[in-house]
Amino acid sequence: MNNIKTIYIPLLGILSSVVAFNLANSAKTFGVLYNSFFPCTQNPMNSFPCFGWVDISVMACAALLCVVCLITVVLRYRKVRTSHE
Predict the structure, then answer these.
(1) Which of 17, 28, 36, 85 could pair with 62 as two cysteines, CB 3.0-4.6 Å apart?
(2) pLDDT value of position 3
(3) Distance CA 53, CA 4 (A)
(4) Are 45 and 61 spatial neighbours (Cβ–Cβ below 8 Å)?
(5) Burial 37-47 (b: 16+ CB within 10 A, else e)
């Protein structure tokens, strides 16, 4: 049980970043939300939505958070295993 307590917060970070990545990737949730508050004009020569950079930024931040939390989980788990041996 003590092992789970040491990696509980980073595991929640991994879970939340995966959910945020999926929302940004599949539903374009964050870009649409941003566009509702700060409307942008779409360039008719471009098929990429003008708020698409918001979703790409959220996906990049979520991926970075997931990698940092994963490294934290691995390091804490190694520390817990070496301290018990």
Answers:
(1) 17
(2) 66
(3) 37
(4) no
(5) eeeeeeeeeee
Helix (H) or strand (E) holding 21: helix 2-22
**33 has pLDDT over 70:** yes
CA distances from residue 43 to 25, 29, 34 in whole angstroms, order as listed: 22, 21, 17
Q: Give the pLDDT mean for 3-9.
A: 77
The region, left, alpha or beta by phi > 0 then psi within -120 to 50, assigned to residue 28 is left
pTM: 0.81
Which position has the token pair 């301290």?
83
> Tokens standing for 2?
């003590």
